[in-house]
Amino acid sequence: MAVTATPPLALSDLVTEFGTDGSTALSDYVRGGALVPDTAPNAAVSATSAGLQLSQFYSTSAADIIPDAVDWTDTSGSVATLTGNTQTITGITVAINLKITFTGGTNGITYKYKKNSDGYVDLVSGDVFSVSSGDVINFRGVRGAPGADAGTLSVYNNSNGDSFMDGMNWTWT
Fold first, then answer.
1. 66, 69, 74, 75 alpha-carbon torsion, rounded to 10°
2. For residue range 24-53, what is the model confidence (pLDDT) as tens digits?
3. H-helix or E-strand containing 140?
4. What is the pLDDT of residue 101?
5. What residues have CB less than 8 Å from 86, skipping those under 6 apart?
6. What digits encode the pLDDT tens for the residues 64-109?
């Protein structure tokens, strides 16, 4: 749960949200320190104790919204449908939103994603979908017409300011 978005705000609100390392000094709550994660919801919080103010903590959160690294590999082949490798989302404590964009392709490439054992869902560049820790994600590219083609699919963490997570190059020969 996030820190309140409206006044009043007290140091005890920070202790409730972020915990404590034994002390309750405001200087213990710098962004990127031991208690406050360096994530988009906490961007207004100073990373140094010199600039730290209680008013910087409205709507901040202890939730870990930065997943562990993923590595969807580049995919190539001559068949109409190419399926990329599967990745498991880990390292987050709350659900996050992934934003998918893609470029390239002249033969009507359609991209799809599958979460866990659900079926594949068509994607439009800019689509956003939610994932939680432990979710298994797979992407598929379908070439719309015969012939060589190529495209790039990129995955962003929409919950952390659209930070880039991974990209995959797709090549049909």
1. -80
2. 899 999 999 999 999 889 999 999 999 999
3. strand 136-142
4. 96
5. 136, 137, 138
6. 888 999 999 999 998 888 898 899 999 998 899 999 999 988 888 8
50 lies in the same domain as 113: no
In a domain, 148, yes or no: yes
What is the extent of the structural domain holding 36? Answer: 11-57
| Helix ranges, the chain (H) | 11-18
Q: Are 123 and 151 in contact (CB under 8 A)?
A: no
Do 44 and 85 lie in one domain? The reply is: no
> What is the reported pTM?
0.80
Looking at the structure of the chain, the number of domains it has is 2
Residues 19 and 84 in one domain: no
Angle at 159 between CA 90 and CA 111, to 5 degrees: 75
